[in-house]
């Protein structure tokens, strides 16, 4: 079973952890009830959201590899029934999770260049610190039972035919224990579209010899016998693939008879769509909403002061648009319009556009509704015709006449309007950010079955928004950068601006990690380690970046790395006026990130959410591991810690650590 929608704000990780446990429970319940043929889920999608135009970015957790890796591990452990922490029982799986798409896959169809033929040129440095870390975490921390190799090639080699990637990296280096599947028909294209293999039998041999076990599609079935007869594969190759596949099926208990008599046999249909699970869906939707603008206290609205409300926009009254892509049947779904009609009796509705394409409009009707109401809320953004599998965007602006509709309505309204954006990828709404007639902007992503309720609760102050953006929102000018340029790091001499908050040097509409609240919060460190940290007994390795000394993390060893770990405690206060759930983000920054060493400008190293009453103070502890958090990737893919200063930041507060031999 394919799995899809996952994009969420940095605020939603704790709720996401509970949600994936529910996914495993409900999957097993459906299977036990005879309504599913298997228990293998081809999810999560943990490719880094590198380019804002990518149609499947909506399926991912975002652009940061640390966050994506943590999400991957939590997703896998929850679905597979391991629990979110502690020991793993690898012999029994509640369901099987599969981390995809391995690796450097983030292009569907851009100006005629499709994922089926695309050859991603990726440096060892970018593989080490951006593209591969989520998969490493998926295996080492999550203990995933499945990996899917991708359609694309990486540096000329199809990923499903790459022995170094599948067998050496995943199985040998990371200790992967499970099956490796191709994406659907990814074996066929190795010969038929990419021309990498000279014959169909060569394609079958390439993938089996590389370590792939399962072909989604019929290519291996069709050409495997002739590949065996021609001596291009052996029975041992087939046996290995069968062993890896059937071992997972056995771990799922698929050969143990009546599933109701097995370990997970007590999970029945009464555990699907329970009230607890529906409440969790609402909490996830609430946590995922990001308040991007709130000028003059435009939000929250007050039920007692809103006598009439105009709801405008094609995304206001279509329940399927809340779900994004790859979704199962929801338990209950209400559209935003239906929910708001329960808040304000006198609520009018005009779609304004025929769809996200907005090439047919009813702007005069929308203007009339806006001018007649006390308050106006617009539901705009994108839909699955604009972004999805096989569809990338060419522009970052709102499609068609959406901007014209929004500005016309804002000009006609009695008060500054509220703009709610439903979309997976970021959009350039600079016009709305700077327009005083647009008082507030909410990004809701594709919030799922309870999204309509969650949005209304935020609008009317029944929930205090605390979400943070998991991706950078770029201006339209970013579209001059080819999607096919996989480099993460900026190259100023050529005008290449870099990608994601870690390396991008250019203007933004909204930054990664940005998000407002109805409350004010403050943060400061209350414990700080000594300024100097000696790495005793290690010889510094000279690098080419200005003669800077650095220490090879692998050479340091686990004992030294463990000794260097330290706690960082953050004091967080909610200054009111509302209670709220609040994310605390801790970053590392380097003082000289532009010196040619390839360091990120800053890097997320930890994040936690906590609920604080108005005026309440709490302490949050983060474990900081210099070997993991302070290291950078060299051009040849080694991890090193540079000698000198490193700064750990939370909001405006920071402390310095300096490493010396």
From TrEMBL:
GO molecular function (one): xylan 1,4-beta-xylosidase activity
Segments forming domain Fibronectin type III-like: 582-654
Classification via Pfam families: Fn3-like (PF14310), Glyco_hydro_3 (PF00933), Glyco_hydro_3_C (PF01915)
Matching InterPro entries: BXL (IPR044993), Fn3-like (IPR026891), GH (IPR017853), Glyco_hydro_3_C (IPR002772), Glyco_hydro_3_C_sf (IPR036881), Glyco_hydro_3_N (IPR001764), Glyco_hydro_3_N_sf (IPR036962), Ig-like_fold (IPR013783)
Keywords: Glycosidase, Hydrolase, Signal
GO cellular component, as recorded: plant-type cell wall
Biological-process GO terms, alphabetical: arabinan catabolic process; xylan catabolic process
Coiled coil: none
Membership in a protein family: Belongs to the glycosyl hydrolase 3 family.
PANTHER family: BETA-D-XYLOSIDASE 5-RELATED (PTHR42721:SF3), SUGAR HYDROLASE-RELATED (PTHR42721)
Name recorded for this polypeptide: Fibronectin type III-like domain-containing protein
Natural source organism: Miscanthus lutarioriparius
Lineage of the organism: Eukaryota, Viridiplantae, Streptophyta, Embryophyta, Tracheophyta
